Amino acid sequence: MLQLHIVLVKPEIPHNTGAIGRVCVGLDCHLHLIRPLGFRLTSQHLRRAGLDYWEHLRVTDHDSWDAFLKAGAPARMFFLSTRGERSLYDCEFRQGDALVFGNESGGLPEQFYSLYRDRLFKIPMPGEHARSINLANAVSIAAYEAYRQMGGGAAV
After folding, report:
1. How far apart are CA 23 and CA 110, in angstroms?
2. Residue 127: its pLDDT value, please?
3. 140: left (phi > 0), else alpha (psi -120 to 50), else beta?
4. Could you tell me the CATH superfamily of domain 5-149?
């Protein structure tokens, strides 16, 4: 079992969260949703994007970032943002780590850029015209890199 946590801080788009939930089921990751959410957890859009996988998802929603920390946040957290200076591929992931992502329109909360500066990473994007990629795609890239590093990659 992969012990990886995916943390979405104030996600806004149910389709993205549904797709991310589906990736989490595929990798057996624990999904954490930090409120406020831009949708209801019962949203048909969320369920549609997650298909019939949602019932198998390990998901916890937290009222705030502080509530997430008090609930026993993983000791090692990696924050992903277009404002990161180091590459995701410089990370050395271990079981129990967390990948933390901001929301679709604003990224991580502003204070995170100073609080967690030493743990801020980006997904390299050599294309000159793109500012960012879709949140669900970013989570997939980072989660599968962590999976690969933790010994995944062989067909299971």
Report:
1. 27
2. 83
3. alpha
4. SPOUT methyltransferase, trefoil knot domain (3.40.1280.10)
User: Comparing C-alpha atoms, which of 28, 26, 6, 27 is closest to residue 17?
Assistant: 6
How many Å apart are CA 10 and CA 33, to the nearest integer?
A: 7
E strands, the chain, are 5-9, 30-34, 58-62, 77-80, 86-87, 98-101, 120-122
Average pLDDT, the chain: 90
How far is the C-alpha of 147 from the C-alpha of 66, rounded, in Å?
Answer: 27
Give tens-digit pLDDT for 68-117. 999 999 999 999 999 999 999 999 999 999 999 999 999 999 999 999 99
Distance CA 151, CA 132 (A): 28
Place of tokens 């993983």: 74
Whose tokens are 């057996």? That residue is: 28
pTM: 0.93
pLDDT at 155 over 60: no
